[in-house]
Amino acid sequence: MSVIERIQAEVQGHPIVLFMKGTPQFPMCGFSSRAAQALKEAGAGRFHHVNVLEDPEIRASLPRFSNWPTFPQLFINGELIGGCDITLELHQSGELARMVADTQKA
């Protein structure tokens, strides 16, 4: 399986996927930490994450896959939502909580 196929499988296999540096419990950068915290506060108690620091192939290929240059990257229902800034804006507006709730209805 190619790295692009692996990324596709992660994105399609989970309603919420956060590609981040570190883990939600032990984030390795402030942006990843804030994005994970926003997801938790929005009601995503448990969500799938991929630690890009542990997988150099994904770290190198994800920006080409998503056309988004930085980490973290949040995908909901197979769609790229964005990075830390967009995630925080959606959280502050209440939209992120709605998006999270929609994934739990399915």
From TrEMBL:
Keyword Metal-binding: yes
Superkingdom of origin: Bacteria
Family annotation (Gene3D superfamilies): Glutaredoxin (3.40.30.10)
Keyword Iron-sulfur among record annotations: yes
Domain (Glutaredoxin): residue spans on this chain: 16-81
Keywords: 2Fe-2S, Iron, Iron-sulfur, Metal-binding, Redox-active center
Name of the protein in its database record: Glutaredoxin
Source species of the chain: Coralloluteibacterium thermophilum
Gene (UniProt): grxD
